[in-house]
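re: ur question from earlier - yeah i can do the single chain one, its not a big deal. heres the input i used so u can compare w yours
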Amino acid sequence: MTEFYAITAANTLIQAMSPDAMRGRAISILSMLILGVSPFGALMAGILAQHLGPSLTVSIGGLACIAGAILCSVDLPALTVKGRQLIVASFMPAGMHR
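and the output i got, formated as tokens:
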């Protein structure tokens, strides 16, 4: 269920920060990444589970998630500021951007 919230948040941010002329392209790339990369991850997990066993595969996946969360948490404050600036700028009338 948490994945649903992350996808919804990413979709909302992409739509809010994309220029009108590029919004459809941005959403299509996001959809391709979300739907297109998952089968490769499942294939990789299956191959690892076959060679290393399911317990070790799940442990490796958990460690990868923790490492990714740590990396994202380091960059999150800067990304949050940049995202807010882009969202505010998208609602300003033309000519008022800095």
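Residues 2-91 form one domain. not sure if urs matches, ping me
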